[in-house]
Amino acid sequence: MSLKLFNTLSRQVETFAPLDPASRSVRMYCCGPTVHDFAHIGNFRTFVLADLVRRYLEFRGFTTTHVMNITDVEDKIIRRVRETGVRLQEYTSGYTQAFFEDHRTLNCLMPHHVPRATDYIAPIIELIGRLQERGLAYQAADRSVYFSITKYCGCGHRYGQLVAIQADQLRPGERVQNDEYAKESLADFALWKARVPEDGDVYWPSPWGEGRPGWHIECSAMGMALLGPSFDLHLGGEDLVFPHHEDEIAQSEGAGLQAHGAPFVKHWVHGAFLLVEGKKMSKSLGNYHTLRDLLQKGYSGREVRYLLMTAHYRESFNFTLDGLAGARTALARLDECAAKLEERAAGATAAADPVLIEAFSRAMDDDLNVAAAWGGIFDWVREQNRLLADNRMSQDLAAAALAAWRQVSGTLGLVPPSGVEAPAEVVALAQERQAARKAKDFRRSDELRDELKRLGWLVEDTPKGPKLKRA
RNA sequence: GGCGGGGUAGCCAAGUGGUAAGGCAGGGCUCUGCAAAAGCCCCAUUCGUCGGUUCGAUUCCGACCCUCGCCUCCA
Hints:
Helix content: 40-55%
CATH topology of the largest domain: Rossmann fold
Radius of gyration: 27 Å
CATH superfamily of the largest domain: HUPs
Strand order of the largest sheet: 4-3-9-10
Order of helices and strands: EEEHEHHHEEHEEHEHEEEHHEHHHHHHEE
Structural class: alpha/beta
């Protein structure tokens, strides 16, 4: 068995393999955040997907080089900079830092490279220059530089690889800017945007005059700079399919740096959108959640991550607060089982239980069918609990089960948090309660249980004596 | 208007041409001084609607209804 993934290029589920089939390394790029504000839960669905893809590839024995860009210059950012009077750098660095904190809170692995657009102005200019040399870019009357789709197609390239696009059926947006009237054709897009007064001091010199990069070009420039002109896997949200990714392909393949016949990217993966409480997330509906909002409501990053990973990435997913509460219960059950296995294994080691590993891989190999994977995991958990309850769980079995669960939970990025030792004061209260119980002073023992609860600890009486758990 | 996803129990969500995984919530029981945890059992004759193909469709085809997304520098 091997991993099969839907490829937006072919609109089919394909066996995933790197461009070099002999290679066990995967070069992957995921479009990162625009740091104009705190990222919201919908943004994070995509980043959790990228993280899961990376972890699963690594689970499958690939090494990965994972790139995620930070878009730190863009219309909305410039508007905020103008409104707040803060310098661009200062404005974006705060949100960039906040983004990485959130990314960490969701237990997403740090990508190997996290390039910022503003650090890649030179390669961007170089790439635009190359497109101009090849006759695919032109400077219009507004001094901006555009990519000519007509010329691109004239060279034998295909525009519309990711979606069926008929240029004449594109409907002009309602917010077409004045400066875009200068384009030769509606579908052409900006590579370099000439400086306008509203840009303030956000501009860079270039052969075409002062200005700033267009949106799509940064991903082409940074992706190719860090991963080479052709790479294996590119991810992003489904809204980026068109025009962003289509334009990225056009620019990158238009530059013609790839080896003959090689594509810019072999495999495109797009994550679907999120609904919140059944509706499109919007500030006016009050269902617009940043990760920070959810943490403030008392949920953990781990719970959010779990919930985001309960549905298939290509289906829109309804994110609800009820769902988050359910995530907490489900995780507690998994952690409880793991803790019992750990106790039973008592430090013994064994090869991972193949039952769990196989159920998990089979589901995940099938286009990352996480829902089916959870089905297998919970079936397995029930079986482990049954063995534990019937006293049929040997130390070796427990060690094997634990080893399997560590692999699986690690791949999902949901390793149980390490247990916190109860402070001496709490232990003393628990001992006092146990003494009261032995003396059949249940009133006193219940008082002590309440007291412990106030301190944030739950006490469970097991056949092996009382156990303390963090509430 | 063009293109592309979806509609499965109270909620979330897999899946299949042969009679519906899993999670959460809910109910019963076992265990427990009581709880908690765990276990066992129950919880969709039914998969948006209507037709068609078939021995048989939730799964294939057609129409319709609803919903979401892209075509706007929104993940």
